[in-house]
Amino acid sequence: MRIVLVGPPGAGKGTQAAYLAENLAIPHISTGDLFRANISQGTDLGREAKSYMDAGELVPDEVTIGMAKERMSRPDATRGFLLDGFPRNLSQAESLDAMLKSEGMTLDAVLDLEVPEDEVVKRIAGRRICRNDSSHVFHVTYKAPKTEGVCDVCGGDLYQRDDDSEETVRKRLEVYHGQTEPIIDYYRGQGLVVTISALGPVTEVTGRAMEALGKKG
């Protein structure tokens, strides 16, 4: 299957993408991974992307699409792929369609993870990170430390990242509503969208997603 995964920040896209890709035996292709891989390997696209990033500018769509096209052409993607974080806007969605059409391919489904806005804010703004080791992550509601402000693992101080503040989260949601949500209507017009609730345990959400995708397969 060729799938695009969409949803607001805090919907658990990265987690679900990993589970779904494993269950469907297709590669998980995330824009973050593409950028890191191309830059670290010093590819032409990676160098071009880095020049924009170093200048504090947005990387042009054609560079992102070029990276995605190269990744989707690899042998492990012949059975399909799951795109996470791309397309991010209507222009990228239209370019992706054109690229797939030129390769004789089409998308099979667009999986929309639905989460109420207040829950998104609660999920992200409640995160606390250990200053000693950023892999030690807690949550004031869902995974509270035994002692407030203290890491259970190493005793380090827990803090809230600046980009996890409620104000920043709401700004990110505004960007999502303005730029990314329109692609859902675009793909809905093609009959590709399946929307599921992303509330509840991770395994339950994965089960809902697999059932919804099964009906599209």
UniProtKB/TrEMBL annotation:
<keyword id="KW-0547">Nucleotide-binding</keyword>
<feature type="binding site">
    <location>
        <begin position="85"/>
        <end position="88"/>
    </location>
    <ligand>
        <name>AMP</name>
    </ligand>
</feature>
<dbReference type="GO" id="GO:0004017">
    <property type="term" value="F:AMP kinase activity"/>
</dbReference>
<feature type="binding site">
    <location>
        <position position="161"/>
    </location>
    <ligand>
        <name>AMP</name>
    </ligand>
</feature>
<feature type="region of interest" description="NMP">
    <location>
        <begin position="30"/>
        <end position="59"/>
    </location>
</feature>
<feature type="domain" description="Adenylate kinase active site lid">
    <location>
        <begin position="127"/>
        <end position="163"/>
    </location>
</feature>
<keyword id="KW-0963">Cytoplasm</keyword>
<dbReference type="InterPro" id="IPR027417">
    <property type="entry name" value="P-loop_NTPase"/>
</dbReference>
<keyword id="KW-0545">Nucleotide biosynthesis</keyword>
<feature type="binding site">
    <location>
        <begin position="10"/>
        <end position="15"/>
    </location>
    <ligand>
        <name>ATP</name>
    </ligand>
</feature>
<comment type="pathway">
    <text>Purine metabolism; AMP biosynthesis via salvage pathway; AMP from ADP: step 1/1.</text>
</comment>
<feature type="binding site">
    <location>
        <position position="200"/>
    </location>
    <ligand>
        <name>ATP</name>
    </ligand>
</feature>
<keyword id="KW-0067">ATP-binding</keyword>
<keyword id="KW-0808">Transferase</keyword>
<comment type="function">
    <text>Catalyzes the reversible transfer of the terminal phosphate group between ATP and AMP. Plays an important role in cellular energy homeostasis and in adenine nucleotide metabolism.</text>
</comment>
<dbReference type="Pfam" id="PF00406">
    <property type="entry name" value="ADK"/>
</dbReference>
<feature type="binding site">
    <location>
        <begin position="137"/>
        <end position="138"/>
    </location>
    <ligand>
        <name>ATP</name>
    </ligand>
</feature>
<feature type="binding site">
    <location>
        <position position="172"/>
    </location>
    <ligand>
        <name>AMP</name>
    </ligand>
</feature>
<feature type="binding site">
    <location>
        <begin position="57"/>
        <end position="59"/>
    </location>
    <ligand>
        <name>AMP</name>
    </ligand>
</feature>
<dbReference type="InterPro" id="IPR033690">
    <property type="entry name" value="Adenylat_kinase_CS"/>
</dbReference>
<dbReference type="GO" id="GO:0005737">
    <property type="term" value="C:cytoplasm"/>
</dbReference>
<feature type="binding site">
    <location>
        <position position="92"/>
    </location>
    <ligand>
        <name>AMP</name>
    </ligand>
</feature>
<comment type="similarity">
    <text>Belongs to the adenylate kinase family.</text>
</comment>
<keyword id="KW-0418">Kinase</keyword>
<dbReference type="InterPro" id="IPR007862">
    <property type="entry name" value="Adenylate_kinase_lid-dom"/>
</dbReference>
<feature type="binding site">
    <location>
        <position position="127"/>
    </location>
    <ligand>
        <name>ATP</name>
    </ligand>
</feature>
<dbReference type="GO" id="GO:0044209">
    <property type="term" value="P:AMP salvage"/>
</dbReference>
<dbReference type="GO" id="GO:0005524">
    <property type="term" value="F:ATP binding"/>
</dbReference>
<dbReference type="InterPro" id="IPR000850">
    <property type="entry name" value="Adenylat/UMP-CMP_kin"/>
</dbReference>
<dbReference type="InterPro" id="IPR006259">
    <property type="entry name" value="Adenyl_kin_sub"/>
</dbReference>
<feature type="binding site">
    <location>
        <position position="36"/>
    </location>
    <ligand>
        <name>AMP</name>
    </ligand>
</feature>
<comment type="subunit">
    <text>Monomer.</text>
</comment>
<dbReference type="Pfam" id="PF05191">
    <property type="entry name" value="ADK_lid"/>
</dbReference>
<feature type="binding site">
    <location>
        <position position="31"/>
    </location>
    <ligand>
        <name>AMP</name>
    </ligand>
</feature>
<protein>
    <recommendedName>
        <fullName>Adenylate kinase</fullName>
        <ecNumber>2.7.4.3</ecNumber>
    </recommendedName>
</protein>
